[in-house]
Amino acid sequence: MLGLGYGIFYYFLKPADAPSVLNASADKFSTQPFFAAKLPNENGINQSLSQYKGKIIVLNFWATWCPPCREEMPELSQLQQEYQNKNVVVLGIAVDEVSLVKAFTQATPVSYPLVADENTGMGLAITLGNDQGVLPYTVIIDTNGKVIQTFFGRISKPLLERALAPLLMHL
């Protein structure tokens, strides 16, 4: 009976702002390939991702064709604006073509940096725990470059704020 109750809760009543659980093995993911990467921004200018070392990173993998990805972008923009002075950066990696990202940002501006590469982007997502190939996929990386938490699917600002709170206490 208890198992049935848990099953009903987990599959039908689980809060909407919790699209996934903490990946218990998040500490096994290496951020070395991420920090070694150079990806083009929406204007085609290569950006070294090592520039984000020492910051708390909310890394969001997305694509222009992904409705949940586009839905969460206003909240990610708000998070960037509110937390940028607290050593937090939101960074979007589009698993998409640069030209499509440029067209998207002209129609829908965002307040955080974006880079794009269809192949490298998904490769980085996989090295950071996205073994399901799901978009959106979000990774929280601490100031030491350690993966703290991962989220499959659409996230929300309150969910991210809860994940960031313990990291901000140590600054």
Structure summary:
With 171 residues, the protein is α/β, with parallel strands linked by helices. It has 6 helices and 7 strands, in the order ααβββαβαβαββα. The chain has a 5-stranded mixed β-sheet, with helices on both faces. Strands 1-2 form a two-stranded antiparallel sheet.
Structure description:
The structure is a single chain. The chain has helices spanning 2-13, 32-36, 67-83, 98-107, 118-127, 157-169, and strands spanning 38-40, 46-48, 56-62, 88-94, 114-116, 137-141, 147-152. With 171 residues, it is of the alpha/beta class. It has one domain: 3-Layer(aba) Sandwich (Glutaredoxin), CATH 3.40.30. The strands form two sheets. It has a five-stranded mixed β-sheet with strand order 5-4-3-6-7, sandwiched between helices. The longest helix is centred in the middle third of the chain and has 17 residues, at 67-83. Mean pLDDT is 87; it is low at 1-24.
Give the topology.
Layout: H1 2-13, H2 32-36, E1 38-40, E2 46-48, E3 56-62, H3 67-83, E4 88-94, H4 98-107, E5 114-116, H5 118-127, E6 137-141, E7 147-152, H6 157-169
Parallel strand pairs: 3-4, 4-5
Antiparallel strand pairs: 1-2, 3-6, 6-7
Structural key phrases:
6 helices; 5-stranded mixed beta sheet; alpha/beta; 20% strand; two-stranded antiparallel ribbon; Glutaredoxin; 171 residues
Global mean pLDDT: 87
What's the level 1 CATH class? Alpha Beta
Order of helices and strands: HHEEEHEHEHEEH
Largest sheet: 5 strands, mixed
Quickly count the helices. 6
Reported by name, the CATH topology is Glutaredoxin
Number of strands: 7
So, CATH architecture? 3-Layer(aba) Sandwich
Strand content: 15-25%
Counting helices, strands and paired strands, the structural category is alpha/beta
